[in-house]
Write a structure and sequence with these properties.
By secondary structure, the chain is of the alpha/beta class. The protein folds into 4 domains: about 5-105, no CATH class; about 145-305, Serine Threonine Protein Phosphatase 5, Tetratricopeptide repeat, CATH 1.25.40; about 350-530, P-loop containing nucleotide triphosphate hydrolases (Rossmann fold); about 540-655, Helicase, Ruva Protein, domain 3. It is built from 27 helices and 17 strands. Strand 15 and strand 16 (about 640-645) form a beta hairpin. Helix 3 packs across helix 4 (about 45-60) and helix 9 (about 185-190) packs parallel to helix 11. One of its GO terms (molecular function) is ATP hydrolysis activity. Keywords: ANK repeat, ATP-binding, Nucleotide-binding. It comes from Hypocrea atroviridis (strain ATCC 20476 / IMI 206040).
C-alpha cells in the first residue's frame, strides 16, 4: 500500500484496471506501480489529478510537521512547501506557506491518522481493510494486490495461477513482504482458508512470521482470530504447526497440561515468561487464554513432544512431492504410533523403486481412526481416495464389475473405473471392514497386490496400478491389540526406544493373527500392519471437544422459517464451553467404550445437544428469523453437565 494510505484511514471506491494509465503515471511521477494504482484509485483514474496529488503529498512526506497529533483540529500548523517539478503549474511555489489542514484537503485526505503502531501500543489483532485491487497477470510481483485479493475472497487456484508467473526463487524472496506493516501470511490466515495458507507457505511464506511493531507471532494472531472474526481456528492452528510454526511462540503455561483449564484469565503471568514473551501483556494473555480451547491446547502440547523430521526425511518427501505426509501427526488425535509407522513405511516405499504396490493393513477397534487416517493421508498428499465398503460385496464381479460378454460389462464398477482413471498415478483404495470379504474376492486381489497389474473389465486393457496404495481396514484383530496393550503399557509411554521395540513386536503379532483368520496368499502380500490403539483419557476428552465444535457450528447457523431443505427452527446460538477440560473429561468418562471409540464419544455431544434443545423449548418466546445471537453456556455442576442460555432478560438452566 502507498505511504499515503499507511498514514491515513481512507476509502477508495474506484478500481484501477487501465494499464496504460498506470504506466503513464509511473513514467511521469517516477513512482512504483503500486503507488500509481493507489494514486489513480484516489483520483478516479484522472492522471492529471493523480500527478498533482503525488507532488503535493511528496511535499508533506519530505518535510513533515514536527508534532503530528492524532487530530488536526487543534489549530493550523504551517508547512513550508518546496518547489516542485516544472510540470506542476498549479502547485505552490517554494516561498508559499500552506497550512496542514489545507494541504490535507488539497490531497483529498481526511484529517484522521491511522492507529499508532508504535511498540508501546498494543495491537487489537485486527488487520486493516485493503482496497479491492484485482490480481493482474503481469510480470511483476505486487504484494498489496495479493493481500487485497486474499482479503476479498480470491480462490486459492487464482492465487496459485498468479504466483506461478514468477520463478520459485523470486516468490520465495517476496512472500514475506509486508502490507500495511503486516506480513502477507497474516492476511492468508485471516481468510480462514487452509488451502491459501498452505499455498503461501509452499511458495515461501514464513509460518513463524511476526507483526514487528507489537512482536506478535502468527500463531497468536491465528488463535485470536477466533475472537475478532468469530471463527473456529482449530484447524488453522494445526495447519501452521504442521508447516513448522513453533508452539513455543505461545506461553507454555497456557496449554500445558492441555487438560487443565486455564487459570490465567486474570492475565497474571508466570515468573520467567515476561522477558521471553514481550508481546504477551497480562491483558493479551487473558484474551489468549480465553480463546485457547481444549483442542488448541492438545495440539500445541503434542507439537512440543513430536520429533522434527530428519533432514533426509524432509529431502525425500520434497523429492517425491509428498511433504504433506510429514504433517499427518498434527491432524490426528492420538495414534502417534500409527502415524510414525505409516510415515516411515511410505517414505521407504517411495525411496526405493518397486513394481509392487504398497499394501497396508490398518488394524484397530472400530471408531479409532482407521478411515480418518486414510482420509488425512489422501488430503495431505493431494491423492484421490476410493473408499470401498466390503460388507456390500460377496463376489469379485460385484467389486470390479462383470467381464465381457456378461450384462453390464460396459459400465464397469466404481473400483474398476477408479483404477482405470488413475492408471500409473499415485492414489489410495481403502477397503473398509476387509474381514467381511470372501476368498473369491481375496483371489481377485492377488494380482493387483503382487505386481500392480489389472485389466479394465470394460475392454480388457492392461492397467498400471503399481503406484496405488491399498489399505485394508479390519476390526478382526481387536483382541490382539487390546490384549497386547493391557500387558505392555510401555507402548504408550514416553520412552521412544522402548515404544519402537513394542511397536515392532505388536506388528509381528498382528501378522500372525491375520494369517490365522485369512489365507496365506493375502497375508504374504501385505507390506506392513499399522496398529491403531485405544484412546487415552485425555484423547477421549479432546475427541469429545471436537464433536462439540461441530455441534457449535450447527447451532450458530441462522434460523430459517421457510419450508424446505433450508428450514432451521433453532439457530443463532453461540455455544460456549466453560472449563472445557472438565466438561469434556466428564462426558468422555461417561460415554467412551473401547469397542466403539469415537462413535461412543459422539453420544456426549448428543447429550449436550439435548440440554440445549430442552432449554430452548422452555423459552416462552416465538421463534423469529430476527433473533439475535445468544450465548449458551455449558459447564459442570457437582459432576453433572448443565447448560443455560443467556439473553438480555433471562437465564434458564437445565441439567
Amino acid at each position: 500500500m502507498s505511504d499515503t494510505q499507511s498514514i491515513y484511514w481512507m476509502e477508495m471506491d474506484s478500481a484501477v484496471e487501465d494499464n496504460h494509465l498506470i504506466r503513464t503515471l509511473m513514467k511521469e511521477c517516477g513512482c512504483t506501480r503500486q503507488r500509481a494504482i493507489d494514486l489513480l484509485s484516489i483520483c478516479n483514474n484522472d492522471v492529471d489529478a493523480a500527478k498533482k496529488h503525488h507532488d503535493l503529498y511528496q511535499v508533506y512526506a519530505q518535510d513533515p510537521p514536527e508534532d503530528l497529533a492524532p487530530s488536526f483540529n487543534d489549530g493550523p500548523s504551517d508547512l513550508s512547501v518546496r518547489s516542485l517539478s516544472s510540470s506542476q503549474a498549479n502547485t505552490p511555489s517554494s516561498d508559499q506557506k500552506i497550512s496542514l489542514p489545507e494541504l490535507l484537503n488539497a490531497i483529498k485526505m481526511p484529517t484522521k491518522v491511522a492507529p499508532d503502531n508504535s511498540p508501546n501500543k498494543e495491537w487489537d489483532f485486527i488487520l486493516p481493510s485493503l482496497v479491492d485491487v484485482s490480481l493482474e497477470d503481469e510480470q511483476f510481483f505486487d504484494s498489496y494486490s495479493l493481500a487485497s485479493a486474499v482479503q476479498h475472497g480470491a480462490m486459492a487456484s487464482h492465487i496459485r495461477s498468479y504466483l506461478n508467473i514468477f520463478s520459485s526463487l523470486f516468490t520465495k524472496e517476496n512472500m514475506n513482504a509486508t502490507v500495511e506493516g503486516f506480513p502477507l501470511i497474516f492476511y492468508a490466515v485471516a481468510s480462514n482458508s487452509e488451502d491459501i495458507v498452505r499455498l503461501f507457505i509452499e511458495y515461501g511464506a514464513n509460518p513463524n512470521a511476526i507483526y514487528e511493531p507489537s512482536i506478535v507471532p502468527l500463531l497468536a494472531f491465528t488463535i485470536m482470530c477466533g475472537e475478532t472474526l468469530q471463527i473456529d481456528t482449530t484447524n488453522m492452528v494445526c495447519v501452521l504447526l504442521s508447516k513448522g510454526a513453533s508452539p513455543c511462540a505461545i506461553p507454555k503455561d497456557l496449554y500445558t497440561p492441555y487438560l487443565q483449564d486455564n487459570s490465567t484469565s486474570s492475565g497474571h503471568k508466570t515468573s520467567g515468561a515476561i522477558e521471553e514473551f514481550v508481546w504477551c501483556s497480562p491483558e493479551i494473555k487473558a484474551r489468549l487464554s480465553k480463546n485457547l480451547n481444549l483442542t488448541h491446547r492438545y495440539f500445541l502440547e503434542k507439537s512440543t513432544k513430536l520429533e522434527p523430521p530428519s533432514t533426509k526425511r524432509r529431502q525425500i518427501a520434497r523429492l517425491r512431492e509428498c511433504q504433506g505426509l510429514l504433517g499427518i501427526p498434527y491432524f490426528l488425535i492420538g495414534q502417534t504410533i500409527a502415524t510414525e509407522l505409516l510415515i516411515q513405511r511410505l517414505l521407504i516405499h517411495m525411496m526405493l523403486p518397486a513394481k509392487s504396490p504398497l499394501v497396508l493393513c490398518f488394524a484397530g477397534p472400530s471408531g479409532h481412526g482407521k478411515t480418518e487416517l486414510a482420509r488425512q493421508l489422501g488430503h495431505l498428499l493431494s491423492l484421490d481416495l476410493e473408499v470401498v465398503d466390503c460388507t456390500t460385496f460377496t463376489h469379485e464381479m460385484e467389486l470390479f464389475g462383470p467381464r465381457r460378454p456378461y450384462h453390464g460389462y460396459e459400465k464397469g464398477s466404481a473400483v474398476n473405473n477408479f483404477l482405470v482413471g488413475h492408471s500409473g498415478k499415485r492414489c489410495i483404495v481403502f477397503l473398509d471392514e476387509f474381514e467381511k470379504t470372501t476368498k473369491e474376492i481375496h483371489s481377485s486381489l492377488l494380482l493387483p497386490f503382487d505386481n500392480g497389474e489389472y485389466r479394465d473389465r470394460r475392454n480388457g486393457e492392461k492397467i498400471d496400478c503399481s503406484k496405488t496404495i491399498w489399505i485394508l481396514a479390519t476390526n478382526a484383530l481387536d483382541n490382539t491389540i487390546l490384549d497386547f496393550c493391557k500387558h505392555n503399557e510401555a507402548i504408550t509411554g514416553d520412552d521412544g526406544n522402548e515404544k519402537t521395540r513394542q511397536m515392532r513386536k505388536l506388528s509381528q503379532q498382528l501378522r500372525e493373527s491375520f494369517l490365522q483368520q485369512f489365507d496365506a496368499p493375502v497375508t504374504g502380500r501385505i507390506s506392513d500392519f499399522i496398529p491403531l490403539l485405544p484412546f487415552s483419557a485425555g484423547e477421549q476428552a479432546v475427541i469429545t471437544h471436537k464433536c462439540l465444535l461441530g455441534l457449535a457450528q450447527d447451532l450458530r447457523l441462522p434460523i430459517c422459517l421457510n419450508k424446505g431443505p433450508m428450514e432451521r427452527l433453532i439457530g443463532n446460538i453461540r455455544l460456549l464451553i466453560r472449563r472445557d477440560g472438565i466438561v469434556c473429561s466428564t462426558l468422555a468418562k461417561s460415554h467412551y467404550h473401547v469397542k466403539l471409540g469415537a462413535r461412543s464419544l459422539m453420544a456426549g455431544a448428543e447429550k449436550v445437544k439435548r440440554i440445549v434443545l430442552d432449554v430452548y423449548l422452555d423459552d416462552d418466546e416465538e421463534i423469529t428469523e430476527q433473533d439475535g445471537l445468544r450465548d449458551f453456556i455449558i459447564d459442570v455442576d457437582d459432576g453433572d453437565i448443565v447448560g443455560r442460555i443467556l439473553t438480555d432478560t433471562r437465564a434458564n438452566t437445565r441439567s
